[in-house]
Design a protein that fits this description.
396 residues; alpha+beta; binds flavin-adenine dinucleotide
C-alpha cells in the first residue's frame, strides 16, 4: 500500500488499495502461532522437559514452578525477557500493552502511543497506513534517542503528512475514560511546556519502554543481584553473586541492546560456557538495530555524540539521499545517511541510515565493521547495480 501510494503520479495508479485489519492480523498469526508448538516439539525431541507456569527462586539452587520443585545440580539459566515498564500515571490501567496491540480485532479510528521509542514509531506507521489518526506523546525533546538525531528529525517530518502527530516535551499526567456517546473513549491529559493539554483517542497504547521481567522471580531468595538493567552478570554472562546462575537476553545486564539476535547470541554464549570450560566471553562487536518504520531507520556502531565524547578523530559524512536514484525511483522523500570513519586507520566506526532498504543495507556496514574492513576496502566492493548496496560506496 505504501509503495503504491508513493508512486502515485509517478506512473502508478493506486486505485482503491486499503488495509483490511482483521485479514492482516490473521496473516500475522500465521507467523506467530506455529512458533510455540514447533519449539515444544523441538525441545521434546531433544529430551528437554518443560514446565508451564511462573518460575520463582526458593533457594540458591532451587526454583518452584507452580507445584513443581526443581533442584539444580549444575546451573540455572534465567531468560525471562522484558515487560512494559509500569506507567505511574492516573488511569494507567486504561493503557493497552504493545503485545495486545497486534491482537486487536479491529483498528480504532484514533490511537495515542505513550512514549517515543521504536515500538510506538513502528506501530504508529502501521496504524496510520491502515487509516487511523495517530498521536505519539513523548516526554523528552528527542524521540528514538538511541538513533541519530538528524535522521530522526527527518523521519518525524516525514510522519506528519501521514497523519501522525508527534508531540514532544509532552508528559502524560492522566488517562481519563470519556463516557460521552459518539466521542473518543479516552483522553490523555498531558503537561506540554508547563501547560495542560488533552488529546482524545479511542485507544491508548503503551510504548514507554520495557524493563527486565524479574519481579516474579524472587531473585533475593536465589541470592541473585540485579539492577534496573537486569541480572548482574560478568562477561561470561554468569551471575556476579550466585555462580550457579546464568542469564541471557533482555533480562540480563549484559551490556548490549535488548534485541532478538542479542538474546539468541547470549543464549549460545551461556550454552558454550555450560558445555565447555566456562571461558566463552560475550563479544557483541557491531550490533545493528532498526526501527521498522516506512522508510526504516537503522544504526550500527558509534553515534556522532559518542564519538565526540570519546574524543575520537573521525570524519563524519552526512548527506540527504532523497535525490539518489535508489530513493527517487520509489518516490521516497525521507532518505539520508551519516557515517563515521576514523582518521588514520580508516576504520568504519558507525553508520546511520534512513530510507528504503536501510533495514538490509545496515547489515553490510555491520559485516564490514565486524570484520574490521577499512572504508577504502569497503568502497572497492563490487555490488550489484542498481541496488541500495551500491550506494554505500558513496557513504564512506
Ligand atoms: C513490540 C516489540 C517489537 C520488537 N521488535 C523487535 C525487532 O524488530 N527486532 C529485534 O531484534 N527485537 C525486537 N523486540 C525485542 C525482542 O522481542 C526481545 O529482545 C527478545 O524477545 C528477547 O528475547 P528473550 O528470550 O530475552 O525474552 P522473551 O522473548 O521476552 O522471552 C521471555 C519469556 O519468559 C517468560 N517469563 C517471564 N518471567 C517468567 C517467570 N517468572 N517464569 C516463567 N516464565 C517467565 C515470558 O513470559 C516470555 O515468554 C521487540 C519487542 C517488542 C515488545
Amino acid at each position: 500500500v505504501n509503495a503504491a501510494r508513493l508512486m502515485q503520479e509517478r506512473g502508478v495508479r493506486a486505485g482503491g488499495l486499503s488495509i483490511d485489519w482483521p485479514e492482516l492480523m490473521r496473516f500475522k498469526r500465521s507467523f506467530t502461532e506455529p512458533v510455540s508448538a514447533s519449539r515444544r516439539e523441538q525441545l521434546a525431541g531433544a529430551g528437554i522437559e518443560t514446565f508451564d507456569g511462573v518460575a520463582r527462586f526458593t533457594g540458591r539452587a532451587q526454583v518452584h514452578v507452580g507445584d513443581a520443585v526443581l533442584d539444580a545440580t549444575r546451573a540455572i539459566v534465567i531468560a525471562t525477557g522484558a515487560r512494559p515498564a509500569s506507567l505511574h500515571v492516573e488511569g494507567a490501567g486504561h493503557v493497552l500493552t504493545s503485545d495486545r496491540f497486534l491482537e486487536l480485532p479491529a483498528l480504532p479510528a484514533s490511537v495515542i502511543f505513550v512514549g517515543g521509542g521504536y515500538i510506538s514509531f513502528e506501530f504508529a506507521h502501521v496504524a496510520a497506513r491502515a487509516g487511523a489518526r495517530v498521536t505519539i506523546v513523548h516526554r523528552g525533546q528527542r524521540p528514538l534517542e538511541h538513533f541519530d538525531p538528524d535522521l530522526v528529525e527527518r523521519l518525524v517530518a516525514r510522519m506528519r503528512p501521514l497523519g501522525i502527530d508527534v508531540r514532544l516535551g509532552a508528559e502524560v499526567r492522566a488517562i481519563e475514560r470519556v463516557e460521552a456517546v459518539n466521542a473518543p473513549a479516552y483522553q490523555v491529559v498531558c503537561l506540554e511546556s508547563g501547560r495542560r493539554s488533552s488529546v482524545p483517542a479511542d485507544l491508548v497504547v503503551h510504548g514507554a519502554g520495557r524493563v527486565p521481567d524479574l519481579d516474579e522471580l524472587d531473585l533475593r531468595a536465589g541470592g541473585i543481584e540485579s539492577s534496573r538493567a537486569g541480572v548482574l552478570v560478568d562477561s561470561h554472562l554468569r551471575s556476579v553473586s550466585n555462580p550457579m546462575v546464568w542469564a541471557a537476553g533482555d533480562c540480563a545486564a549484559g551490556g548490549a541492546p535488548p534485541l532478538t539476535p542479542v538474546a539468541g547470541y547470549e543464549g549460545r554464549v551461556v550454552a558454550a560456557n555450560l558445555l565447555g570450560g566456562g571461558s566463552t566471553v560475550a563479544d557483541y562487536g557491531a550490533v545493528p538495530s532498526v526501527v521498522f518504520t516506512l522508510p526504516p531507520l537503522a544504526r550500527v556502531g558509534l553515534s556522532e555524540a559518542a564519538a565526540r565524547e570519546k574524543g575520537l578523530d573521525v570524519t563524519i559524512k552526512h548527506q540527504d539521499m532523497a535525490g539518489w536514484f535508489a530513493s527517487r525511483r520509489l518516490g521516497e522523500t525521507a532518505s539520508a545517511f551519516k557515517t563515521l570513519v576514523e582518521n588514520g586507520t580508516g576504520r568504519i566506526l558507525g553508520a546511520h541510515l534512513l530510507g528504503p532498504g536501510a533495514d538490509e543495507t545496515i547489515n553490510l556496514f555491520a559485516l564490514a565493521m565486524r570484520c574490521g574492513m577499512t572504508a577504502d576496502a569497503f568502497k572497492q566492493m563490487l555490488w550489484a547495480y542498481p541496488t541500495q548496496a551500491s550506494d554505500t560506496a558513496y557513504m564512506v
